[in-house]
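DEPOSITED CHAIN:
***
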Amino acid sequence: MRALVAPSILSADFNNLGKDIEMINQSDADYIHFDVMDGVFVPNISFGIPVIKHVNKIAEKPLDVHLMIVDPDKFVEPFVEAGASILTVHIEACKHLHRTIQLIKSYGIKASVSLNPHTPVALLEDIIEDLDMVLLMSVNPGFGGQKFIENTYKKVQQLRSMIDNAGSDCLIEIDGGVNYDTGKKLLDAGANVLVAGSFVFSADNPKEIISGLKSL
């Protein structure tokens, strides 16, 4: 399976966000990734429903929305209405994960669960067949541009084994420190979707970087 690429607009130029979205529209990217932070679950605040709603008006790629927030259940409907095609919640933020996943799916969109670097993939064993995607954090959530955590490769291999044994079509997405080197190793370990922020938006030719990631 060819790599799927999701540029993260956390690293975009918010003075020219429309221009960056148009760049993604014209690129080989598969999704537009949004890191939504509340300043409680993670030590930073990013953006929320209004930004996603406005981006959705001009986006030609599905919106991949990653909720790094507490009590995500009460925000599922607003983010779906804003345009999310995939909604990711953190296992660490959900008291009743199965209920949350079923709630997301009830709106006819894809449901995904994210794990922080310290959280073992084994915790997903009883719900993996209900998931469309798992997002593994390869940095500690909250800020862009962090150094990649090497243990992620092992977690990808463990998760890939779990998914294959379950006969599931669940995708594995990686967020944090993705570049050509880490991206190739992640795909070899069994990942499917690469989130890339600063690696894309700090480049002189972002579309070329996106194409390069897809061809790893």
